[in-house]
Each structure stands twice: as C-alpha cells, then as structure tokens.
Amino acid sequence: RFKFKKSGKGLWKQILVSLVAAMIVVALAGSAASLLYLKTVIDDSPTLNVDDFTSPNSSRIYDSEGVLIADIGTQLRENV
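Now predict its structure.
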C-alpha cells in the first residue's frame, strides 16, 4: 500500500516514480511477448533448400550496346 507524503513535491515524485516503474514493467512484458511470438513464427517457418533456388534455365549476358556476350546455364532454352 502506497503512503504519500503530505508535501506536494514528495507526492509528485512518488507518482512519477510509479509511472516510470509501470512503463518499465509494460516494456518488459511487451518484449517478452514479442520474443515469444517471434519464436513461434521461426518454429513454424519451412526449411529452405538451396536446390529450390537454382534454375536450370540459361542466363543471357549482354554488353553495354545490347550485344549478347554469353548464354550461361545447363539448359539453353528460349522462354516464350
């Protein structure tokens, strides 16, 4: 139970300290909730495989004038 002093300065100081303490508690609770949510998102995310990001299609390399320099890839196909 809080006991406030009779003087005005002491009362405002206790109110300010109480508000700061409440803000710190809310910030810590919010941080804990955010970390818990982040953990559930990471646990539910799919695993990534490098082979899913490689394409057998060819890549065309052009010079600054638009002339084809190289056609690199395992399948030299033209997409239509």
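The chain has a mean pLDDT of 84.
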